[in-house]
Amino acid sequence: MKLQAAWATDVGRVRGGNEDSLLIDEALGVFAVADGMGGHRGGEVASSTAVEAVRVSLAKGEPIDRAIRSANAAIRERASGDPEVTGMGTTFTAVVTLDDANLLIGHVGDSRAYVLRAGELRKLTQDHSLVEDLVRAGRITPDQAEVHPQRSIITRALGIEPDVEVDLYTVPVGNRDRILICSDGLTDMVSERDVARIAGDTASPESAANALIAAANNAGGNDNITVVVLDVDDVGDIAGFIDHVAALDEPAMVAPPLANPGAATASIKRPFLRVPVRTTARFALAFIPVVLIIAIGFFVVQRRATHTWFVSNDAGEVVIQRGVPGGIWGFDPEIVERTGLKVGTLTEGDRELVQDGYCEQSSIEAARNCVAVLESRRLPVEPTVPIPSTSVTTTTTPQPTSQPRTTSSTATTQP
Ligand code: MG
Q1: How far, in Å, is the centroid of ligand 1 from the Cα of 50?
Q2: Taking ligand 1, which is a single-atom ion, which protein residues have CB atoms under 5 Å away?
Q3: What is the pLDDT of residues 356-369, one digit of tens each?
Q4: Whether the model pTM is above 0.70
Q5: How far is the CA of 240 from the centre of ligand 1 (A)?
Q6: Residues 6 or more apart from 283 whose CB is under 8 A from it?
Q7: How far is the CA of 250 from the centre of ligand 1 (A)?
């Protein structure tokens, strides 16, 4: 697989400094965007610390999820020694090459990865944000989420908790696919429809990156903007087994996040279609790892269903259930603890969150912490507008700036 990469980052039109960081290392085959947050220098320090830690881990041969978890530790370590940056955090969305036909994404926060394929833009990552939780719970529509006043509140970031869950996505790619990685400075300002149009109308990755930055600035440039564009070419043989057009009709390619820290486990979700006769023997050989991967996938799902706890509503009482909200592959969740906390006493936002189950955790103790958080931010009298106290927000006081500073570059890699 060949990736032609271009990237650009810009302070925008409102912020005083750029707290986004980029990781571009073609030798390691990694491309990432980190969007830092935290007062004073915090955001910039958090995102650049994360980038450096991930680079070092990958260079040691560690898988991307472990590398991102070590970035989490590095930020916390850095913050503990410096009161000026205490509480800093960052998003992290990284694309690495998995093999000759697949990319692997490691993701925490609300930066995003997309694929533009045959003119259609698909989001590959799920935001860890309050509005995404509300959309998934069916409380608001995706359109309402795009303009929601609390859309910058994120529910997961590096540097906040001692351990962080990293979402992994396996993405089979084809020739002429264009991958985008971006911070919310792009997607908050430019609609996905316009991102698709601009990314589709531009020939080179470099012109795409620059045009996207310009579009965000033309729309107001309220935040730092960072874009990585990767054009995919020379995809290897494995891709011949996968119908990329069919893949477009399916939901996002989501590997279940691992409940337990461990090695990166890829899962395959594409049916093998249109296998040429001549490749039957190769297919048979390829089938062995597929069976293994499906078995591992089943194990991961089964483990997730029995090692996940979440908070929900049962008959007006906050309860802790084991399993995955809504069940998964026949594993239905069961109530393991009643808390005595009445749902009616929660803030409006929290009532919506617990309605369909939220705060999935890998231990019952962590789920109890979620209940404690709900209890702590309960309003004593009348519920008003909910602002979760444990969430991290990217909102800062806008400061005027003289000139947008833009840097961009291009290069080609052959992993
Ligand atoms: Mg941002």
Answers
A1: 15
A2: 35, 183-185, 223, 394
A3: 888 888 888 888 88
A4: no
A5: 38
A6: 241, 272, 275
A7: 29
